[in-house]
Specification:
CATH class of one domain: Mainly Beta
Subcellular location: Cytoplasm, Cytoskeleton, Flagellum axoneme; Dynein axonemal particle
CATH superfamily of one domain: YVTN repeat-like/Quinoprotein amine dehydrogenase
Keywords: Cell projection, Cilium, Cytoplasm, Cytoskeleton, Flagellum, Repeat, WD repeat
GO biological process, one term: cilium movement
CATH topology of one domain: Methylamine Dehydrogenase, Chain H
Protein name: Dynein axonemal intermediate chain 4
GO molecular function, one term: dynein heavy chain binding
Shape: elongated
Structural class: alpha+beta
Radius of gyration: 49 Å
Largest sheet: 4 strands, antiparallel
Helix content: 25-40%
Number of helices: 11
């Protein structure tokens, strides 16, 4: 570059030092790199070994030599410039420089830690040993003082479960059964006589044929003797055959008479009464506890023990009579009777409420079937109807509907065999002998309990409007048909998984009309400010599966319907197209809704999302949410004697909640055995008892003990 001033003179500055290009000597490291790159093979120190360095390393060495350290970041060198400089350096090197030995020094670089896991153990002789021992002692004291300390609180958390993994094993389940029979002494005697008669008759027949087939003789005398002997043999054989036939006839007549006696109505009735008496004798203490009667004690059993106890008491009174009198006088002088009454009340309050198992409705016929629903008779409070069927599609098999009585807890009074699993049932109020049964395939059947015939009176199989999904709940509902409200009619209402709530007309055949078609509703989600609108997915079905319903206890024109979406719709019988309200709070299918019988504005709902929610019909937000354990809630029911008490059936346990005591934890929790799951609950109508159905086909009867809220009917609402 040349610099000129305003007058055009060359004022370019000249360098103070003119370097000689031939006198430039590069550094040893760079010369080594360049010689190694361009030489290919070296001599001297390297011997015959070949050294090759990549083009990038040579370029870096030249750049390090030509560019100053401070300006490396701001300088960019093209590949052509680098190649030109390499050629210049190659021309400057002489033969002596190439033959000269070069010293290379290898030094250790700094250690780079990729993974550092500090040890959890410290040597006793280290400097931090005392401090760590002190920390361990403080932690041990904290763990020791944790039980019962107010500073530690246990809290349940809902976490996301990992994906389930199915593992298949080629092994058939071993099914074991216990079978037995009862044999009486006369059964043994008759069978022994039959075995004894058969071989004797065969021996007699063979003897008679041998007597007849005797050899002929030539002489007359022998012929005469032969005729006599043959006649005698024939007479003896005929008498023996006639005797055996008489015995066989007598045995057949005895069997015929015994069959006539066993099949006679008089004998069956006598056996029925005998069975009733035996059941009452066996279950008398438990039935008395169920009905809250005093338990009677057999006087014959306790007579001897009472005599011995009385004799011991008399002997003690003679020995310590004076001492007892003195002590009783001292107690009467110093103890106030009011204090004793207060102490008794405190002792009653200290005893916690509990569930005591009385008995179970179970037999061999119901073993292995899951209890799906239960219902009391509207007229006879001792008659219970139980439906047996599975909720899962893979576990479906033939169902049962049994009617149990308190008079015989070991065998049902009526057994109705069903082709499909029973999912719901209920007794009629207008005709108490009619039992409506809903099944998994969507059919509805009505049985007559009074009849001994197990065939259905009416069936929906011929109806063109029958359900195409499982009937999850059905109920007989009384409604006012007239304007004055004097006349009431009964209707059979069903809800099914096909999204329909139907009303069934009971005439010569069953037919139904749609009360409501449950439509799917879009979930209302709050959009974030930066979130874009997503396209709505196409629905497979426009109808939502119905799971449960419950009519208002005072106004039967309104009812609630729970769906598989987790929504609860308030509906009206006069409006079949629109919902009055929709309650959103559950994240899973709603399995049960129930109005409070005392506070008719409140209702409960349970779901597969492990929660129970208390609602007010005027508010679409939940009032209270109860979630005590991570388990599906299959069934709930309000107590018929208290506005605060309700029962919940979870898979692992049964819970009794008393809202007047606590809204955080249940007052009673009864845990199930490892091989069973609780599926349904039902309060007794006339006693303080609870019925619980499980997955093994048993219906347990439990007595509620020390639950004070059952005696209170006051209603208090808390928002």
């Amino acid at each position: 570059l040349q610099v000129f001033d305003d007058e055009g003179k060359d004022v370019t500055p000249h360098p103070l030092f003119h370097s000689d290009p031939k006198a430039v000597v590069p550094r040893q490291g760079k010369l080594l790199a360049s010689s190694a790159h361009f030489g290919g093979t070296g001599s001297g120190t390297y011997g015959s070994s070949s050294t090759s360095i990549s083009n990038t390393s040579t370029t870096e060495s030249i750049l390090d030599e030509t560019v100053e350290p401070g300006s490396r970041r701001d300088t960019t060198v093209s590949l052509s410039d680098v190649q030109g400089r390499q050629e210049e350096i190659e021309e400057l090197l002489t033969k002596d420089d190439l033959d000269r030995s070069v010293d290379i020094y290898l030094t250790e670089t700094e250690t780079i830690w990729i993974l550092d896991m500090p040890s959890v153990a410290v040597s006793v002789e280290s400097e931090d040993a005392g401090r760590i021992q002190e920390r361990n002692r403080i932690y041990a004291d904290i763990c020791k003082n944790r039980p019962g300390n107010d500073r530690f609180v246990e809290k349940m958390m809902q976490t996301i479960n990992g994906a389930a993994k199915n593992k298949e094993v080629q092994c058939d389940q071993i099914i074991m059964e216990d079978k037995g029979t009862t044999v009486t002494s006369w059964d043994l005697y008759n069978s022994f006589n039959v075995l004894k008669i058969k071989p004797t008759s065969k021996a007699e027949g063979s003897g008679a044929t041998a007597g007849r087939s005797s050899k002929p003789h030539t002489t007359k005398e022998h012929d005469q003797t032969m005729s006599v002997s043959s006649d005698r043999g024939s007479t003896s054989s005929s008498t023996m055959i006639s005797g055996s036939s008489v015995l066989a006839r007598n045995h057949e007549e005895e069997e015929y008479h015994s069959e006539v006696i066993l099949t006679s109505e008089k004998f069956q009735q006598d056996l029925f009464f005998m069975e009733r008496i035996l059941m009452e004798n066996i279950f008398q203490p438990k039935l008395a506890a169920y009905r809250q009667f005093p338990v009677l004690i057999d006087p014959d059993v306790t007579s001897d023990t009472s005599r011995t106890v009385a004799a011991v008491k008399e002997a003690k009174e003679k020995e310590h009579g004076k001492e007892k009198k003195d002590k009783e006088e001292q107690k009467e002088a110093f103890i106030d009777p009011s204090i004793l009454s207060d102490v008794n009340k405190i002792l009653e309050e200290i005893v916690p409420p509990s569930l005591e198992r009385l008995w179970s409705y179970a037999c061999d016929l119901t073993n292995g079937h899951s209890v799906s629903s239960m219902a009391w008779s509207k007229v006879n409070p001792d008659l219970l109807a139980v439906g047996y069927g599975a909720f899962d599609f893979k576990e479906q098999k033939k169902g049962l509907a049994c009617c149990w009585s308190l008079k015989n807890p070991m065998w049902p009074e009526r057994i109705f065999q069903c082709e499909h699993g029973v999912t719901a049932l209920d007794f009629s109020m207008a005709s108490p002998s009619l039992l409506a049964v809903g099944m998994y395939n969507g059919s509805v059947a009505i049985y007559n309990v009074r009849s001994c015939n197990d065939a259905a009176l009416l069936d929906s199989s011929e109806s063109s409007n029958k359900h195409t999904g499982p009937v999850w709940q059905l109920r007989w509902v009384e409604q006012d048909r007239s304007a004055t409200g004097d006349s009431k009619t009964e209707r059979l209402i069903c809800i099914s998984a096909d999204g329909r709530i139907t009303e069934w007309l009971v005439h010569k055949r069953l037919d139904c009309t749609d009360l409501m078609k449950i439509k799917r509703t879009e979930s209302k989600k709050k959009k974030l400010p930066d979130e874009k609108e997503r396209k709505s997915e196409a629905l497979i079905s426009q109808q939502a599966a119905g799971m449960c319903f419950d009519f208002h206890p005072k106004d039967t024109n309104f009812y609630l319907a729970g769906t598989e979406e987790g929504h609860i719709h308030k509906c009206s019988c006069s409006s079949r197209e629109q919902f009055l309200k929709t309650y959103r709070g559950h994240k899973g299918p709603v399995y049960k809704v129930a109005w409070n019988p005392f506070s008719t504005d409140m209702f409960l709902s349970c779901s597969a999302d492990w929660s129970i929610i208390l609602w007010h019909q005027d508010s679409q937000t939940p009032l209270l949410t109860f979630s005590s354990t991570t388990a599906v809630v299959h069934d709930i029911m309000w107590s018929p004697k208290s506005a605060f008490v309700f029962a919940a059936a979870k898979e692992s346990r049964v819970e009794i909640w008393d809202l007047s005591v606590s809204i955080l934890d249940p007052v009673i929790s009864y845990f199930a055995s490892p091989r069973e799951k609780f599926t349904s609950v039902l309060f007794a109508t006339n006693t303080d008892c609870l019925l619980v159905g499980d997955s093994n086909g048993e219906v347990g009867v439990f007595e509620l003990q020390n639950l004070a809220a059952l005696n209170s009917n006051k209603v208090q609402l808390t928002r």
